[in-house]
Amino acid sequence: MPDTLTPDGLLAELATLLGPAGVLTAAEDIAPALADWRGLYQGKAMAVLRPANTQEVSACVTLCAAAGIPIVPQGGNTSMVGGATPTEDGNAVVLSLARMNRIRAIDPVDMTMTAEAGVIVKAAQDAAADANCLFPLSFGGEGTATIGGVLSTNAGGNTTVRYGNARELMLGLEVVLPDGKVWNGLRRLRKDNTGYALRHLFVGAEGTLGIVTAATLRLFAPPRANEVLFCSVRDEDAALAVFRRFRAVDETAIRAFEYMSGLGVDFAAKHIPGVTWPLAERADHTILVDLASTRADADLQSLAEQVLGDAMEAGEVIDAVVGGSEARRQALWRIREEHPEAQRKEGASVKNDVSVPVSKVPELIRRASAACVALIPGTRPVPFGHMGDGNIHMNLEQPEGMDGDAFLARSHDIMDTVNEVVRELDGSFSAEHGIGRLKTDMMEAWRGGAELDAMQRIKAALDPRGIMNPGKVLP
Ligand code: 2HG
Ligand code: ZN
Asked: Where is the FAD-binding PCMH-type domain (predicted)?
């Protein structure tokens, strides 16, 4: 391949390869791929490529490599950190995996599914359910996010406490490397100690080392009994105490353990039609517990009553409601799932997707909240999220009456303030959303030295020309 392929020459070659429908260049056609859904970044690109299979992805990458043109892989474009959209340079192409949406195989004996990168997470869940299996990854964006995207970001979500992150659900990958070579690592083995675990390099790499085109995923037996509880609790320590109680009685039954501040529930009740406080009295701290079992005759009601009874006696739980029906369970989950939307409707908010050891979650919530209020008086902390994983969305809502843009102008101060507490508690500045563009400038401070140096050398070895998703993850 000549190293002299010009941008125009490249587009002509790509059009020959993919056909006119596979190469979008009109401004209105490519606009949705250039902006992230949070509205943090507005990028530019020469084109959006829509290959239909792995061979086409490989050919696109080979051509772009020859022309030295950067490639931004994109799935559902739901990145929380600007990881899937191009920078402002304008010399890149976006490579959309949307057309690679086939489920290649489901094996209910091996309990595996091989899905292409563009398969929507919800479609993967549905396909697993059709085979009487469970693909457990679940989160708010599951109707849009794709398998390639959740692996590239190592997404977590609501069920991590039971089933692990995307990484733990992955057995094998097919990847197009930055030189266009295809690595077929779609093995479906539970044990495979054969040198470096290459597949894990690409999980969480956010497309900076290659393009995930397909994955073999773990499936599970589907739950046949389920119950959801919503409780008001005395404080953050009480929330943790209740988690420990459930864990002690039946760890395997906990499918999700979520914390929500009272203010967060207030926002959901205020802004989301159909959502109301599910308890007689409002409280400052609440939890949602999702219990599930593969046994149809599992008595989750009794489990809930036993643990809640003890927790109420100990003064940890103030009040509780048990779903009791599928509709009620969904209604309780909605209070939690609508948190991001309710916060958006309430005004400007700054997101902090952070994690600490589970034991430190109460301290994180208390100290980070107080520090942010001290930084900007009137700031309204709305921490919520995956307490069972130590992953709290330590979000801050603008003070009432303050100009939203003025609040957002302080975003970095707020993030620094939260991160200072996170660091003191041995946590991480990025739990499940990734680094993208938003957090690249934090990498040096948090991962600098031997760790970042090793990452940079891996990047240089696999992608010496730096064409894979430049400007993301690494500073
Ligand atoms: C969730 O748990 C998502 O709902 C979004 O991770 C978190 O909006 C957020 O901060
Ligand atoms: Zn989350």
From this structure: 41-222
